[in-house]
Amino acid sequence: MRLSRYFLPTLRENPAEAQIVSHRLMLRAGLVRQSAAGIYSWLPLGLKVLRNIEKIVREEQNRAGAIELLMPTIQSADLWRESGRYEAYGKEMLRITDRHEREMLFGPTNEELITAIFRDNVKSYRDLPRNLYHIQWKFRDEVRPRFGVMRGREFLMKDAYSFDLDKEGARKAYEKMFVAYLRTYARMGLKAIPMAADTGPIGGDMSHEFIILAETGESAVFCHKDLVDYDILGTKVDFEASLTPIIERWTGLYAATDEKHDAARFAAEVPAEKQISARGIEVGHIFYFGTKYSKPMGAVVAGPNGESIELEMGSYGIGVSRLMGAIIEASHDEGGIVWPESVAPFKVGLINLKAGDATVDAAAAKLYAALEAAGVETLYDDTDERAGAKFATMDLIGLPWQVHVGPRGLAKGVVEVKNRKTGERAEVALDDVVARFT
Ligand code: ATP
Ligand code: MG
Ligand code: MG
Ligand code: MG
């Protein structure tokens, strides 16, 4: 993409309304613009990152055996009356009336709808287990939308729903999602710690929130320090085999959110120097809830002897749009965003340091074409801004690599390659540039 033809409205100054760094940088780097309180438009650069986050989420859901579908944003109120949640949900639910006076709502989550779809289409135990998910916009009329996309009213969520014949099956489904979540966050360069979370009236140990430690987080959390250094990507995962050993390793050390925190246990189980008591961002939440929806909604299947079995269910959410804020909170510096390569909107930012100079223009254009031809996504700054401003913009938008093309280097047949994260710079011969990124 040539910057001269792109749509990238960046801001020099810090917007006054943004209280935390990720919100400031998302506005300054031209990723989003607020349309109404807690409702955002995704500008081209932000949309590319959102799609990259989505892609990782999707790949890991598929790898764990979940199946993608797509449910609508608008749902019927009657469905929610079946589960009893229409009245219970309260003001966070955006209620809508259509032209025929039918009561509708903008879905804040999808347990009812997926249970109805499953109930109406699956009749036999032979068709279980299944896990269905979608990546769809949700609306929650948050009292205090804030911190940009971190707590929006309209936000993108991946939500999966598992259907099993018994509790043992539900546990397996839960463990698959647990491990899929660890992999998902790790691939985005995040250290998300699974923490025991409140299960509500169902009880048991099958609810975890995935938490990124950050001062600006809205939850108070407590955990063992060693969890921060646990790494899942080095572990070979077979989703067909038992995942219990992995789960036991991750749940073997103390980690709990505020509601589940037990100060006495924390003190007894975790040595003082290993105690982390911090703030965190909830980027995901997995939950086993048994027959909470299948029972009132009549979601049953016929068992091997014709008996009727109420479905055991769980739900599994990832805050896809919130993740963009969380990634920036975890990865930025004075100059701006530092995208992990896996979610970066472009891999390379190519800077023409002297636009208008025939030699530099030709060399930069040739390099740009070669990078694109090699499949290296490149944002080419071909504008006539001065070099200093170009460097600042490139640092702000945080592409992992920069290539600086100027007359001094070209005289020696080289360009400068800069690593955004480490700041390291290297002179690279023109002919070797593409190979560095493929
Ligand atoms: P929170 O405690 O932050 O209000 P929640 O517990 O109400 O979140 P869940 O119902 O567990 O949220 O939804 C699954 C995921 O969706 C959350 O873990 C979070 O990452 C994301 N999410 C929830 N509410 C919002 C929101 N208002 N804006 C952006 N993402 C959200
Ligand atoms: Mg909430
Ligand atoms: Mg929560
Ligand atoms: Mg939650």
Which descriptors would you attach to this protein?
alpha+beta; 9-stranded mixed sheet; 5-stranded mixed sheet; 23 strands; binds adenosine-5'-triphosphate; binds magnesium ion; ATP binding; EC 6.1.1.15
Helices, by number, come to 14
Instruction: Work out the radius of gyration.
Output: 25 Å
Bound molecules: adenosine-5'-triphosphate, magnesium ion
Structural class: alpha+beta
Secondary structure tally: strands:
23
Protein name: Proline--tRNA ligase
Subunit structure: Homodimer.
GO molecular function: ATP binding; proline-tRNA ligase activity
Subcellular location: Cytoplasm
Detail the topology: elements first, then pairings.
Elements: H1 21-28, E1 32-36, E2 39-42, H2 44-63, E3 67-68, E4 74-76, H3 77-83, H4 85-88, E5 94-97, E6 103-106, H5 111-121, E7 130-139, E8 154-164, H6 167-187, E9 192-196, E10 207-213, E11 219-224, H7 244-251, E12 255-257, H8 263-269, E13 275-290, H9 294-297, E14 300-302, E15 308-310, E16 312-319, H10 320-330, E17 332-333, E18 336-337, E19 348-352, H11 358-373, E20 378-381, H12 387-397, E21 401-405, H13 407-411, E22 414-419, E23 425-429, H14 433-436
Helix pairs in contact: 1-10, 2-6, 2-10
Bound molecules: adenosine-5'-triphosphate and magnesium ion (3 copies).
